């Protein structure tokens, strides 16, 4: 049976101020576990946001240029199977030094 989860950012200390840059996949796309689905920026570097679990991306809550509220969901994904805990996503730096 499918279940819905909302993709949120993992809590970090200190919490960076991210801006949503780009959606890498449109609504209606089946995303795989660990797939890059969006690009975020902290004004110094860009980061990929990865899907923590395979599913159908059904809604984006963030738009290009908007600051990301660390308490709010970024996207909604419907996954197949038995409902399970889904961990918040930690943005991954693009081309780390």
Summary of the model, kept short:
The protein has 97 residues and is mainly β. The chain has no helices and eight strands. It has a four-stranded antiparallel β-sheet with strand order 1-7-6-3, with no helix packed on it.
- CATH architect. name: Beta Barrel
Task: Give the overall silhouette.
Answer: globular
Task: Kindly state the number of beta strands.
Answer: 8
Question: Which strand order spans the largest sheet, edge to edge or round the barrel?
Answer: 1-7-6-3
**Helix/strand order, N-terminal first:** EEEEEEEE
The helix fraction, in percent, is: under 10%
CATH topology: OB fold (Dihydrolipoamide Acetyltransferase, E2P)
Can you tag this structure with a few keywords?
97 residues; 4-stranded antiparallel β-sheet; single chain; OB fold (Dihydrolipoamide Acetyltransferase, E2P); 0% helix; mainly beta; 8 strands
Structure, explained:
By secondary structure, this protein is mainly β. It has one domain (3-93): Beta Barrel (OB fold (Dihydrolipoamide Acetyltransferase, E2P)), CATH 2.40.50.100. Helix content is 0%, strand content 37%. The protein contains no helices and eight strands. It has strands at residues 3-7, 19-23, 30-31, 36-41, 46-50, 55-60, 75-79, 92-93. The strands form two sheets. The protein has a four-stranded antiparallel beta sheet with strand order 1-7-6-3, with no helix packed on it. Strand 4 and strand 5 (46-50) form a beta hairpin. The chain is globular and about 40 Å long. The model has no long low-confidence stretch (mean pLDDT 93).
